[in-house]
């Protein structure tokens, strides 16, 4: 999750508790931005593609080309650090729209790319390169609940906030991330960790079935453990990496607890090292009803620098006992518990504001970081010119670890957690942004080599990551390539970080 959200969660809770989420301009889910340059597409690159308009003329949904009044709104995605300019954005409304689009992509030699919520860290919702065909699935927004099987068929165009709201009305939730604007399609197929992750697993762990349009326009349904089981393996962890356009996911749903408790624990700068070591020590014994993340910020203004924000799925008394050992051993400077409801937690998340940022990710082994690693990290965060934050999604979860690494494409299982190192760049000039990102990437290379495990989390995608195939998919790379060859032999769905049809 990151950027502002986690930070604000505990500071502005009740103020915005009434706010209802979303349903903004269909073209632009990011009504405001900070620090983004005006978009200006490169005419020489984007001369109209001959026959594209004609080819798409029978599409039922909206079709937006460069030069159309809504073109720039239709390509606004979460990150504006880079901008990529598609040759067309298609708001598909039916399977047939997707099939027609893919037919045109094939015949006119254009790369199609799926877009759900536009929250890819590297703007892969717009292809991550110029000249693609964006197939936006936001009209695929059904949510059909089956109370008998405790599952819901959910269109990939839904945003997490809408799903949480609709399910909460009937007392259920899905296990997914914390940012209400994130789209299900990109999120659930690459992992998905949030407030119930330690108890119910990642979103991808909760997929029981899916539907997809593949590279030759075939609509495949269902994709499950017994039908197209190879694809079922691939889409749970690598489903956002170029297998096709996923239109719906059937996810397990879980009952909402009537009362949940927020926990906020903070430490002073001088306590960081000890606190981190205590976390690693107690993590595997932490009650699974607790999920949260640690947040390491620069100590500017001498405020708290290290905090733990968590949700306990139950009453305060249980929450207190769940963190008793942690508190006794680490002696936080500040502790706060607050009973609330699941819906209030969802509603206290502010909408994400489009802005420039760079994020890298790291997986941390069960033993945590060494003291030296923490020092190196704190030193980096404190001394960089641009504001940086390290956020740690605390996995240390039996539920996630118990699932065999071979049962899906998602490999990050027996770990302490995932760290994302985040630079918010909105307050810096383009030159300073470039300098900061360069230092960040240099740091990443050294830090990852010395102090973390080899792997990175694919939902926190990073286009500058070396050996990314192995870092994201580990031993599954050959198998994922075989599956790609079967369903997309001509590599129609290709981006800088899609699964290739042969080993690089
Ligand atoms: C503010 C913010 C908060 C976040 N919080 C969390 C969090 O709490 N936990 C967490 O685990 N992650 C979190 N993330 C990361 C998030 O899970 C990924 O960025 C995710 O891929 C975004 O999905 P999307 O559909 O919104 O993005 P998009 O940009 O639309 O898509 C992302 C990728 O998925 C592909 N894709 C999208 N839809 C489909 C589809 N229907 N079929 C096939 N491929 C598809 C796209 O082509 C693209 O490559 C957060 C990201 C942001 C920006
Ligand atoms: C997969 O879907 C088919 C068709 O609906 C169904 O018969 C089968 O039981 C499903 N498999 C599993 C493991 O759910
Ligand atoms: C988690 O919460 C549920 C519901 O309150 C409770 O039944 C269960 O015992 C809790 N789990 C643990 C490990 O305490
Ligand atoms: C530090 O405090 C000053 C004055 O209160 C404020 O303007 C500034 O934004 C703060 N900086 C940070 C990083 O919080
Ligand atoms: C996963 O599969 C690989 C290759 O078949 C095998 O070597 C490995 O032992 C399996 N791992 C587990 C945990 O089952
Ligand atoms: C289309 O691709 C699917 C696999 O995605 C394959 O089963 C089918 O045979 C292909 N159809 C044609 C006409 O090539």
Automatic annotation (TrEMBL):
Occurrences of domain FAD-binding PCMH-type (ranges): 82-256
Signal peptide (residue range): 1-19
GO MF terms held by the record: FAD binding; oxidoreductase activity
Species the sequence originates in: Gigaspora margarita
Cofactor: FAD
Keywords noted in UniProt: FAD, Flavoprotein, Oxidoreductase, Signal
Family that this chain belongs to: Belongs to the oxygen-dependent FAD-linked oxidoreductase family.
InterPro entries membership: BBE (IPR012951), FAD-bd_PCMH (IPR016166), FAD-bd_PCMH-like_sf (IPR036318), FAD-bd_PCMH_sub1 (IPR016167), FAD-bd_PCMH_sub2 (IPR016169), FAD-linked_Oxase-like_C (IPR016164), FAD-linked_Oxidoreductase (IPR050416), Oxid_FAD_bind_N (IPR006094)
Name of the protein in its database record: FAD-binding domain-containing protein
